[in-house]
Amino acid sequence: xxxxxxxxxxxxxxxxxxxxxxxxxxxxxxxxxxxxxxxxxxxxxxxxxxxxxxxxxxxxxxxxxxxxxxxxxxxxxxxxxxxxxxxx
Length: 88
Prior knowledge:
Largest sheet: 5 strands, antiparallel
Low-confidence stretches: none
Helix content: 10-25%
Strand content: 25-35%
Number of helices: 2
Radius of gyration: 12 Å
Number of strands: 5
Oligomer: single chain
Distance between the termini: 26 Å
């Protein structure tokens, strides 16, 4: 697994609420702009965005398809379940 943190992505303050699985990755990136982080694994590539509250949302791709879109609320819930919530 490889993680890239992008300069300038922190100030983007975007949310994945404006995209869906029916969009192409190219369309999603054009709509959302520069992500905060890109994570690459064997299975997929995830593009992570932070909103003005510092909450993360993301979408994941396999090839030229979006396979998952996760909102900031869903990300918060997953972090609590997995124990990755830094506020705990």
